[in-house]
Design brief:
Elements lengths: L5 H22 L7 E2 L12 E10 L3 E8 L2 E11 L2 E10 L1 E9 L5 E3 L7 E4 L4 E3 L2 E6 L5 E6 L2 H11 L1 H6 L2 E3 L7 H11 L25 H4 L5 E6 L5 E9 L2 E8 L5 E7 L5 E4 L4 E7 L5 E10 L5 E7 L4 E6 L6 E7 L5 E7 L3 H6 L15 E6 L5 E8 L2 E6 L8 E5 L6 E6 L5 E6 L7 E6 L4 E7 L6 E6 L5 E8 L2 E6 L2 H13 L4 E7 L5 E8 L2 E9 L4 E7 L12 E7 L5 E7 L7 E5 L16 H8 L3 E6 L8 H5 L8 H16 L2 E11 L1 H12 L6 E5 L18 H11 L6 H6 L13 E6 L8 H12 L5 E5 L9 H18 L17
Parallel strand pairs: 2-9, 2-10, 9-12, 41-42, 41-43, 43-44, 44-45, 45-46
Antiparallel strand pairs: 1-5, 2-5, 3-4, 3-6, 6-7, 6-8, 10-11, 13-14, 14-15, 15-16, 17-18, 18-19, 19-20, 21-22, 22-23, 24-25, 25-26, 26-27, 28-29, 29-30, 30-31, 32-33, 33-34, 35-36, 36-37, 37-38, 39-40, 40-42
Pfam families: Peptidase_S9
Keywords: Hydrolase
GO molecular function, one term: serine-type endopeptidase activity
C-alpha cells in the first residue's frame, strides 16, 4: 500500500484542482470572460460588450486582484503581477454587474473582500467604464485598509497615453455611488482649448523662494510640540512625559516634582501609545514595533535602604495589552491577551517584580471577562472592576454592562451612531456615563446617562448658545465643572464654590491664558496644567494646592522661549442676513496699513478658530501680515442652530460671512485693501478658491492646502464616503449630489476655473484619504489649460495634514515666498517659478 505525506497529498490535490480550474476556463466561451486589451490594440466591441479600466493603488507588491461577474466565480478576471504604485489595465468584458473579490498577497494568501456595495459596479455596453481605483494599504499581514477612490482624471490620462484611439472613440463613465460630471466636462474643455499642453507636461511649479531670511524660520516654528503626552502617578510626585524632539525618536522622561530631578526612562523610534501607572512606583507603557504588534514594557522604583530609588525594568508578556490599573491593588493591573482559541482574556497581572510577571500565565479559567464573547475593549469602575465591555457585533460595536460581580451583561448602546453623543467620563460605580450631547437640545450640554435604564437622567450643565467642550473631573471621578469657549477663550466653569475658588485662583495666577487641567493625582491636591494664549506658546505648570503654589515645569515649544509674538483680539459683527458672528484679527507690530491674509478654517461644520497659540497665524504675522480668522456659520461653540446654519451654505452664505468680516475688519483696523490674499486648508482651501471667483478684484492671490476643488468628487474620493452610513452623513451635512448636482457644480471652483485670474498656490499630500489628491490634479489641469498655471507642492506619504516636520517647513517656506511675491507693494505680477515634476 502506497502512502503520502500531508504535503505531498496536498500538492497532488492542488495540481488536480488547478487542472480542473483550467478545464473549466477553457470550457467558458470567450464572451464570458474579461479579456485584456494590450497597448496599441483597437478591438471592435461586440453587442453587449464594453471596456473597463481596472486600477489598483498599492504600496506593496501583489500577486493579483480578482473580480467576478454577477456574483459568480467564473466570468470575471484576474489582474496579476502588480508592483507597488498604481497599475492600470484595460479589458473588454460583457456588460453586467461586477465586484472586486480578492486581493492576493501571494497566490495562496490574500484578503477576501466583504460582499457589499462598496466593491460592486455595473459595466455598461458600448463605453469605457471606470469603477474607481482599488486602494490597498496593509496595516499588517492580517489586516489592511481597502476602499474605492475616484481618480478619473488620472485614469483618463493613462487611457489617452496608452490607448489613444479607444480614448478618442468611447466616452468614459465613472461607475461609483454618485455621478461624476468631470470626464464629460474635461473632454469639452479639451475641445475648446486645442492648444492645451499634453497631460505629461502639466506639473505644479515650485513656489518662489523667500526673498530673504524670514523673521522666524519655519524650521523653528513648525517643529511641533516637545511634550506629546504625560501621566501623573496617584501620589502626585512623579510625572512621566513623552518627549519628541528629533525625528524618529520618542522618549519617556520622568520628572520628580518634589526634587525637580529628571530621568530618562525609555526611548522608541515610534510614538509610545500608552502610559499607565500601576500604583505610585511602577510605570507601564505600550511601544509599537515594526511587525504591527505592540509590546508592553515598564520600569519600577523600589526604595533602597539609603532612601534612594532603585529603578528596575519590566517586560510584560508579548501579545498582550493594558486594560486598566487597579487602584485598590497598586502592584496589579488588568492585562488582556488573545488565547489559542481566539478569545480575548482579561486577567489580573502582578507587576510587583519581573519574577512575578514571569510566573504569570494566560489562562481561560482566570479571566475576569466571563460572560462575554467577541469583546475587544473594557471599562472599569473606580475600584478596577470590569463593568462595561465593547463587543463586536455584525459590522459594528455594542457597549454592554453588568451589575456588581455577576456574569450577565446586557446591551447599553451601539457605538456606531455616537455623532451627537460624546462620552467624556464614567462614574466611580461605572453606572453612569458622563457625556456631551446636543441631541434634542439647543446646544451641547453635559449630561449623566444611566446605563441600567439607558436614559439621560440629569443635565449637569447647560448655557444658552454655548457648547460644552469637556468635563472637569475631580477625585472619585466626580464631575466638578466644564470647559467651553467664550469670546475665543477657553473658560473653566466650576459647579461648587470651593472648586470655583480654584478657578478664580488659576485665572488670577495666569491672566488672559487658556488653562486646561492635564492631570491630577488621586486626592486632587496636585495638578498639572497647560496654559497658553494667542501670543504665548503652551507652558506646563505644576499646581500644589496644599502650598497654593503654581510653577512652570516645562514648555511645549522651548525653542520659542523669549520670542515676541503678535496678540490677537476678537471682534463681533453681523452678517448680511443679521446672524451674529465673531472673528479674530492678529496685527503685527509697526505703524501703517498692513497687508491682510484672510485665513478661513476647515471643516466647515463643527470646527472653530479660537484665541489659543496658532503657529501658522504667528508665522504670517511675523512676516508683517495681518491675519483674519472668522467663525462663520457652521462653526463650533455657538449652539446647534448656529452649526445647522452652515448646512447647504458652502460657497454661498459661509463666504458671505467671511466677506462681511473683511468689510468690518477694514473699518476697524489699519489694513491695506489693495494687498490681500486668502489662504486655507481643507474647506478653507475650497473657500480660498471660491472667494477669488466671487470677488475677483479683491484678492491678489489664493493658497489652497489639501483643498476641495470639486464638491461632487468629495462623495467618491474620501474616507468619509466609504460606507453607506458615511454617505448618509455626507448627504445630511453637505447635501446630496444626485438631487443637487447643478448647485454643487455651480459652487465648485473646478467648474469655474477660467474665472480664477489671480496667482494660485496648491499643496497636497499624496496619501490624503479625506480630500484625495485628485482634487489638486484636476484643479492644476484646468488652471493650466486656462493659462494660469499654479505653483505648488505635493508631498509623498502625507495625509490630510502634514506630520513630517521637513514637509511642514517646505510648505510654509513655499507659502512665504508666494505671499511675498503676490503681496509686494506694486500690483502683483504673475508668479514666476521653475518647473517641477508631476506626481
Amino acid at each position: 500500500m502506497r502512502t503520502y505525506t500531508g504535503a505531498t497529498a496536498a500538492g497532488r490535490l492542488a495540481r488536480t484542482l488547478v487542472l480542473a480550474w483550467g478545464l473549466c476556463l477553457l470550457a467558458l466561451p470567450a464572451w464570458a470572460r474579461m479579456q485584456e486589451v494590450k497597448p496599441g490594440q483597437t478591438p471592435e466591441l461586440a453587442s453587449g460588450e464594453g471596456l473597463v479600466v481596472v486600477a489598483v493603488d498599492t504600496d506593496v507588491a501583489l500577486s493579483g486582484v480578482e473580480l467576478n461577474k454577477d456574483g459568480k466565480v467564473f466570468g470575471g478576471g484576474t489582474m496579476s503581477g502588480l508592483k507597488p504604485g498604481i497599475s492600470y489595465r484595460l479589458y473588454i468584458a460583457p456588460a453586467g454587474d461586477y465586484a472586486w473579490r480578492r486581493v492576493l498577497l501571494t497566490p495562496q494568501f490574500g484578503y477576501s473582500l466583504r460582499d457589499s456595495d462598496e466593491f460592486r459596479f455595473r459595466l455598461e455596453p458600448g463605453q469605457i467604464t471606470y469603477p474607481g481605483d482599488l486602494l490597498f494599504r496593509p496595516a499588517s499581514f492580517f489586516s489592511g485598509d481597502m476602499g474605492m477612490v475616484n481618480r478619473a482624471l488620472a485614469a483618463m490620462d493613462w487611457l489617452q497615453q496608452t490607448h489613444p484611439a479607444l480614448w478618442a472613440r468611447y466616452a468614459l463613465r465613472y461607475a461609483g455611488h454618485y455621478p461624476d460630471p468631470f470626464p464629460e466636462f474635461y473632454r469639452k474643455a479639451l475641445a475648446q482649448h486645442p492648444d492645451a499642453r499634453p497631460a505629461a507636461q502639466v506639473a505644479l511649479r515650485t513656489p518662489p523662494a523667500p526673498r530673504a531670511a524670514l523673521p522666524i524660520a519655519p524650521a523653528t516654528l513648525f517643529r511641533g510640540n516637545r511634550i506629546a503626552d504625560l501621566s501623573l502617578n496617584p501620589r502626585g510626585d512623579l510625572l512621566a512625559l513623552q518627549v519628541h524632539e528629533r525625528k524618529d525618536e520618542w522618549r519617556i522622561e520622568l520628572l520628580d516634582l518634589s526634587s525637580d530631578q529628571q530621568r530618562l526612562l525609555a526611548t522608541s523610534v515610534d510614538p509610545i501609545k500608552q502610559m499607565l501607572w500601576a500604583g505610585n512606583d511602577a510605570l507601564l507603557f505600550t511601544v509599537p514595533v515594526k511587525n504591527g504588534r505592540d509590546v508592553v514594557r515598564g520600569i519600577r522604583a523600589d526604595v533602597a535602604a539609603d532612601g534612594k530609588r532603585k529603578w528596575s525594568p519590566l517586560t510584560l508578556p508579548d501579545g498582550g495589552f493594558l486594560v486598566d490599573a487597579l487602584p485598590q491593588r497598586p502592584n496589579q493591573v488588568l492585562y488582556a491577551t488573545t488565547l489559542s482559541n481566539g478569545d480575548n482574556a482579561v486577567q489580573v497581572l502582578d507587576v510587583s517584580s519581573q519574577a512575578a510577571i514571569d510566573r504569570w500565565r494566560p489562562r481561560l479559567r482566570d479571566r475576569v471577562n466571563v460572560g462575554l464573547e467577541r469583546d475587544v475593549g473594557w471599562l472599569t469602575d473606580g475600584e478596577g472592576r470590569l463593568r462595561l465591555a465593547i463587543v463586536r457585533r455584525d459590522d459594528g460595536y455594542v457597549l454592554r454592562y453588568r451589575d456588581g460581580e455577576g456574569t450577565t451583561y446586557r446591551d447599553v448602546m451601539t457605538l456606531d451612531h455616537l455623532r451627537d453623543f460624546q462620552p467624556v467620563g464614567l462614574s466611580f460605580a461605572a453606572d453612569q456615563i458622563y457625556a456631551v450631547t446636543d441631541d434634542g437640545r439647543a446646544q451641547r450640554e453635559l449630561v449623566a446617562y444611566d446605563v441600567a435604564t439607558r436614559k439621560i437622567v440629569r443635565t449637569l450643565f447647560s448655557r444658552s448658545g454655548i457648547d460644552v467642550v469637556d468635563m472637569i473631573q475631580g477625585p472619585q471621578r466626580t464631575p466638578i465643572g466644564v470647559t467651553y469657549y467664550e469670546s475665543g477663550r477657553l473658560v473653566s466653569h466650576y459647579f461648587e464654590n470651593a472648586d470655583e475658588r480654584l478657578g478664580r485662583a488659576l485665572s488670577a495666577a495666569l491672566p488672559g491664558r487658556n488653562v486646561q487641567i492635564a492631570a491630577r493625582n488621586a486626592d486632587g491636591k496636585q495638578m498639572v496644567l497647560w496654559a497658553d494664549a494667542a501670543d504665548q506658546p503652551p507652558q506646563l505648570y505644576h499646581l500644589d494646592l496644599n502650598k497654593r503654589v503654581a510653577r512652570t515645569i516645562g514648555e511645549a515649544m522651548p525653542w520659542l522661549h523669549g520670542m515676541a509674538f503678535a496678540p490677537s483680539e476678537v471682534f463681533r459683527f453681523k452678517s448680511r442676513d443679521g446672524l451674529p458672528l465673531e472673528a479674530f484679527v492678529t496685527l503685527p507690530p509697526g505703524a501703517g496699513p498692513k497687508p491682510l491674509v484672510v485665513f478661513p478654517h476647515g471643516g466647515p461644520i463643527g470646527v472653530a478658530d479660537a484665541l489659543g497659540f496658532d503657529a501658522e497665524t504667528q508665522f504670517l504675522a511675523s512676516m508683517g501680515y495681518a491675519v483674519l480668522r472668522v467663525n462663520f456659520r457652521g462653526s463650533d461653540g455657538y449652539g446647534r442652530a448656529f452649526r445647522e446654519a452652515g448646512r447647504g451654505s458652502f460657497g454661498t452664505l459661509i463666504e458671505d460671512d467671511i466677506d462681511a468680516a473683511i468689510v468690518q475688519a477694514q473699518a476697524r483696523y489699519p489694513l491695506d485693501p489693495q494687498r490681500m490674499c486668502v489662504l486655507g486648508a481643507s474647506y478653507g482651501g475650497y473657500s480660498a478658491l471660491v472667494m477669488t471667483i466671487r470677488w475677483p478684484q479683491r484678492f491678489r492671490c489664493a493658497v489652497s492646502i489639501a483643498g476641495v476643488a470639486d464638491r461632487i468628487l468629495f462623495y467618491t474620493a474620501s474616507d468619509s464616503a466609504r460606507s453607506a452610513e458615511g454617505r448618509a452623513n455626507l448627504e445630511k451635512y453637505l447635501g446630496d449630489p444626485k438631487a443637487e448636482l447643478a448647485q454643487m457644480i455651480d459652487t465648485s471652483p473646478l467648474y469655474h476655473y477660467d474665472a480664477i485670474k489671480v496667482p494660485v498656490m496648491l499643496a497636497h499630500g499624496l496619501e490624503d484619504r479625506r480630500v484625495d489628491y485628485e482634487h489638486t490634479r484636476r484643479m492644476l489641469r484646468m488652471l493650466d489649460m486656462a493659462g494660469n498655471p499654479p505653483v505648488g507642492l505635493s508631498f509623498e506619504g502625507e495625509g490630510h495634514g502634514f506630520a513630517d516636520v521637513e514637509h511642514r517647513v517646505a510648505l510654509w517656506s513655499g507659502v512665504a515666498g508666494f505671499l511675498q511675491t503676490s503681496l509686494s507693494a506694486p500690483a502683483a505680477a504673475p508668479v514666476q517659478a521653475a518647473a517641477a515634476s508631476a506626481p
